[in-house]
Sequence to fold (329 residues):
Amino acid sequence: MSQFGTNFCEYFAKARYVDGAWQAPEVVPLEPLQMHPASHVFHYASTCFEGFKAYRWSDGKARVFRLADHARRMQGSARSLCLPVPDVELLSDMVLQLVSHQVEDIPEPPSSLYLRPTLIGTLPNIGAAAAPSTEALLFVLASPVGDYFAGGSRPLKLLVDDKRARSTEQLGSTKTGGNYAAALGPTLAARAEFGVDQVLFCPDGDVQETGAANFLLISDDEIITKPLDTSFLHGMTRASIISLGRDLGYTINERNFTVDELLAWAPGYEAALSGTAACLTAVGTLVHNGKEHTVRDGKTGPNTDRLRKALQDIQYGSAPDPHGWLTEV
Ligand SMILES: Cc1ncc(COP(=O)(O)O)c(C=O)c1O
Fold:
């Protein structure tokens, strides 16, 4: 299958916000957008997005994972950027219409359909730096994606950056394009200098997250991860792993921890990144101040495997869904 995010379904869903109201959404053939070059988004970055998956089970029907939770997270992003806020019902309806239209294009698990709702400010006004966009476009792209772990997953190597933040205190939990642009420079530099996969951003020693995933420490009976605050993105995979971990009897320790603590704990814990694309992926090595620290034995640990399987079994339909996370299409 082609590279993640480069293959699209033939249709997409879209809805416009004009004159203070959302227009009826439509599912239409995927086409380039016609936009005024003065559109608010091009100048003042009024944009946010979501990312989640639908799975096609052996009964031929699709299920969308945590649809309402992702719609609510998008509402939070829209609010923080002063963009028109779509109702959960509107966004959910657009996703469900699109998935139902494209159900035949969804590959079987472990492959899936990645869904990308995007909201942009379209008001044509280059004098609106200090004013919100009163016009907007909401669209949903659908992209069939393969198994992230095909060919076996290799534990990741992270640069522990104890100075820089990925985002700002204000926008860390907003899923907005500028945060990804901001993380790109440090990530490319770290790849070139240290051969790492990602940067773990730890401003002032506070262990936060990487450019596109949350960070967890896992032992045989405990999961440690940063408690929710506005400095980082509140991942749905993180929340799901916490719920399943609790169900399986792990103690959940949502606490702030420092780089010093992380490096002291690394020999005895498994470390993992969580996110929609990669589910739960082991971290084998941490690089800090030019020195490599092996996490446990540097391999994917049994608890990481166990928790990932618990989540994927629900997503793929091979285990019950006790938390009601899946919406049948
Ligand atoms: C910055 C960042 N952190 C964490 C995550 C993980 O979030 P989720 O588990 O909802 O995919 C993502 C991916 O969306 C992200 O972009």
Remarks:
- Residues 156-316 form a domain with the D-amino Acid Aminotransferase; Chain A, domain 2 fold (CATH 3.20.10.10).
- DSSP finds seven helices and 17 strands in the chain.
- The mean pLDDT is 97.
